[in-house]
Amino acid sequence: MTKQLDPALDHDDYRSNDKSDLVRRVGVRSSLFNVKNKLVGYGLLLPAAAVFILFFYLPALYLFYIAFYHWSILSPFQQFVGLKNFRTLLAQPLFWRSLENSLYYTIVMIPAITFLSLGIAMLLRDGLSARRGGVWRAAVFLPHVTPVVATSIIWVWIFNPHFGLANAVLSALHLPQLGWLESTTWALPAVMIDSLWHSLGLYVLIFLAGLSRVPREIIEVASLDGAKSPRIFRRIIWPLISPTTFFVIVLASVNTWQAFSQIYTMTGGAHGGAGGPAFSTTTDALLVFQTAFTYFHFSLAAAMSLVLFLIILALTVVQKWISDRIVFYR
Amino acid sequence: MTAITLEALEKRFGGTAGSALDGIDLEIADGEFVVLLGPSGCGKSTTLRLIAGLETPTGGTIRFGKSVVNGVEGRDRNIGMVFQNYALYPHMTVTDNLCFGLKSRGVEKGEILKRLDEILEMLSLGDLAKRRPRELSGGQRQRVALGRALIGRPSVFLMDEPLSNLDANLREQMRMEIAKLHRILRITTVYVTHDQVEALTLADRIVVMNEGKIQQVSSPRRLYDEPANIFVARFIGAPGMNVLRIEKDMLIDPDSPFYLDEQITQSIVESTGSAVRLGIRPEDLALHNGGFPLRIRCRVVLIEQLGTHLQVHLEVDSDKLSSNIIAKLDVNCGVAVGDVVTLGSPAHLIHRFDDETELHLGRLANKSERIVSLHSTSGDNSHGVRIGEQQ
Fold first, then answer.
1. Which residues lie across from B324 on neighbouring strands?
2. How confident is the model at residue A77 (pLDDT cuts 50, 70, 90)?
C-alpha cells in the first residue's frame, strides 16, 4: 500500500512497508523541509533585523547602562553613580516643567486627534460620493506625507503675530489677535495646531478602515429599528469601532509623547533656542535632545529618556487595562 | 396590517446606463405572502429596499394602505426586516438585540419584557437569551433576526434572501418555520429570493422579475403551468423548460429532426412569422412510443443519475441547428451516451411562444383533447419535479 502511495519512498526496503514507517519517513522528510524553510525565513529577516538591532535595540539597551553612570563622550573611564542622575533630574525644575508641558500637549492632542479624525472619517464615509470621496481622502491625507520640518516653517509664517494668516483670520472674525509663537500661553497651542494638521490624515485613514468594517446592513437595521443617528452612533458604531479607537489612542499617545520635530522647528531650533519662549514649549523629548546634544549631559539625558519610557509604558498598560474592559473584539 | 401598492415605481442609480427598476406596478394584499423571484441583478432587492425606505425611488409611488409613504423614513413605516447575513448587533446579547428597537422607540419597560418573553417563547430562544451572536449557530442567528423583526409588531414584514446563508437541511427547516409564522401572524410579507423552491413553497403569489421589470405575477401553480413568456418558462422548474425554435422551412424538410403531426403543422403554417417556438418541460418528455404528435430525434450527450430519475442532456440531431434539450427519463429507460433516440410529448404538454415577443400563446391542445396520457396524475408542482412515466 505504501509502495502505491510513493514508490520512491521505500524502494530499498520492501519489508518495512507498514503505515507507521511511512508516517515516520514522511515526517523526517517534512521536518528537513521545515528546517530549510525556516532558514530561508530567518535569512530574509536578517537585513532588517540587523539594522534594527544595531541602530535601535542596542542603543536603547545601552541607554539603561548610561543612565546609571557619569558618562562622558570624551573620557575613556566611566564612573558608576547609581541613582545620582535621577536625583539630579528630579531636583531640576525644568524637568518638571517639561513633564508638565508634555502632559498638557498629550492631554489636548489625544482627544483632539481622536474626535476630529473620527468626525472627518464619518463625513468622508457618509457624505460623499465615491469619486469625490477619493479627492477628499487624498486632501486630508496629503499633509501627512509632507516633511514635518518644511511645513512647520510655513506654519511659523502663518503664526507670525504681525503679518501672519492666523491673526488675519482672527481679525476678520473680530476676535482679539494673539502672540502665537511669541507668547508663553499660545506657543504650545500653535504647535498643537500644526501637529494636528500634519498627523490627522493618518488617523482619519485608520478610522475609515475601522468604519468600513461595520456592515451597512447593521446600520440599516438599527435605523428601521427606530434609532436616530445619534443613538445609532452611540450604541452601534462607537462600540463596533472600539478596537480602532483604542489603536488610534495608543498610537497617538506614543506619537505625541515623542513629538519633537515640529516643536524644535517652530520654536526656533535653527537658531539654537528651541523650547521657548521661557520654556513654555520645552517638552520632555525636546529637553532630552537639548540635554544630550546642546549641553552634552549624556547620562542625564539617558535618565530622562528612561523616565519618558516608563511614563509611556505606564500609560500603555493603563490603556490596555481599560481596553480589556471596554473594547469589543469580534 | 397593511396592503402595499407600488405604482410605476422606478429607481435609477447614478452612473449606470440602465435603471435598476423600470416602472414596477404591483398590488400586495393585506396579509399576503408575496415572493419576489429572479436572477441576481433583476431588481428584486432594490424593490424590497424601496418598500423598506432604505432607498428613495426616482419615480412612482409606494402606498401603505391608502397613504403614500415615499417621503416617510424607514423607521416610521412600521417595518420588520430580515437580511441575508442576519445583521445582528454583534456586541449585544440576544436579549439586547431583540429589545434595541423597542428601547429606541421608548416603549415602557414592562411592555418590553412582556414582548421579549413572547418572542423568546415563539422562536424557542429562551436558553440563548444571554448569548452573543458569535456564540450562536447560523439557524439560531436567523431565528434571532426573525424575532428582532417581529418584536416591534410590524405591519409589513420584509425578508431579503434570509435563508441563503444556511445549509440545505437548516434551510428547509427554517422555510417551514417561516411558513408557520406567517400562518399564525398573517403579516403582509414580501420575501426576496433567487431560489424557486423557496418561492414555490412559501408564496401566495410569486412575482418573477428580470432586468428591472416584472415578468409575471401569479400563483406558484400557474407560474409553472402557464409561464407568461420564455424567460419565466426557462427560469421556473429545475431545470427550466426546453424551448425549441422551429423554422417553417423545416416542417417540409425530409431530413428534419422534428416530426409534427398534420394538425399541428397546419396550425403552425397558418400562424404569422417565419418560425415558432415550442416549449416542453424536461419532465414532460418521454421516449417515443408511438402516437405523440411531436417527436424530436436527438443524441444523448450526458446522463446524470439523480436516483429518482435520470437527467439526460441531449442535442437535436441535425446539421442545420444546434439545440440542447434536457429530459427527465426513467432510471430504467436504458439510454446510453451517444445513442440517437426519439423523444416525444403529447400536445397538451407543449407550450407555444411568439417568436418575436416571446410571449406565451397557449398550448398546442387543451387537456381534454389529450391523445396520450403521459402522467397518471398531474402531480405536485411545488418542487417543479415531475417524473414522466413511460410504458
1. B315
2. confident
